[in-house]
Give the backbone structure.
Amino acid sequence: DALIQRKSSRIFTKRLSLSQIGTLLYYSSGINKNKHFNEPYRFYPSAGARYPLELYIISLRSNLPSGLYHYYVKNHSLEVLLRMEKFDFNKYLLQKAFNKCSVLIIITAVFQRNLMKYGDRGYRYILIEAGHVGQNIYLLSSALNLNCCAVGGFVDDSLNNLLHIDGLHESVLYVFAVG
């Protein structure tokens, strides 16, 4: 059903619960603790199991206090990076359609994790991997009866600065509005 129901929607009416946020983060990019695996694989493929992606979440209208968080995959937890009462959508996103979303999920890449093994081809693998995680976010949103829309129109430097990343060693790749 999740595949059939999957769609992009800019209509955000749902306030995400902590459980929904946890489900989105864990099953989109968390560690699959399936006892049949000898190694801690994730819910998406990664070239050479390098896992160059990081997830951040901006909680705007959810049961998670408003702010910017980093998702720690290894212990399935969130670190508060910044508390924020307001989020200036115009500074970070190029479209106003997302200003009613409950959360923004931001995917970044730490490039060296792939480049050290694959050289320049590592960039391609990073982009493919971001697509896998993005599809997981879409399918999970659908399964949770939430609307989701990928956001390609964002202001790179502004988002990188907000996350305190330099845009060279780590950079924003992909943003998802969910609600």
Remarks:
- The chain has a mean pLDDT of 95.
- The two ends are 19 Å apart (CA to CA).
- The first strand starts at residue 53 and ends at 59.
